[in-house]
Amino acid sequence: MNAPSQSRSGSGTATARNPCTPRECLGWMRTLEQQRSRLLADSDLLADEAASDPSSTRDGGKQAIEVAIGAREDVQVTVQLIDAALAKLAGLGAVPYGICEETGEPIERERLDLMPWTPVSVRGARLRGR
Predict the structure, then answer these.
(1) Residue 13, pLDDT score
(2) Measured between alpha carbons, how far is 63 from 67 in angstroms, rounded to an integer?
(3) Which of 4, 86, 88, 92 is deepest in the core (most CB within 10 A)?
(4) What is the pLDDT of residue 17?
(5) In whole angstroms, how far apart are CA 124 and each of 42, 107, 114, 121?
(6) Which residues, given as ranges, of the chain have pLDDT below 50?
(7) DSSP code at position 15
């Protein structure tokens, strides 16, 4: 995707190659950066709580630590997807932000509103088996 200030149409509107306007791209960037920061902070807090939980030395504490580790791994995957989405918004992706990596079609706006880091549309997710 082109950088927000380099919209192909030159009019600041979305195009097939650049599916969001410069203003929309900036909004997505802010949203993604905020979500990335929040996820990392929550992940660190969860890890600290699991490590400092006195029940971790008793039966059942091991399960709490395993849950915390699993949650942290999920966060890491999401952060990687956010980083990839931010790179696309900066014009560094092979596929522009908002375009499905599987189908080449625009990702549904509702899907981006729920998961702005998603690289695939609903149809693309089905093709990937997710």
Answers:
(1) 63
(2) 6
(3) 88
(4) 61
(5) 29, 9, 16, 5
(6) 1-11
(7) -
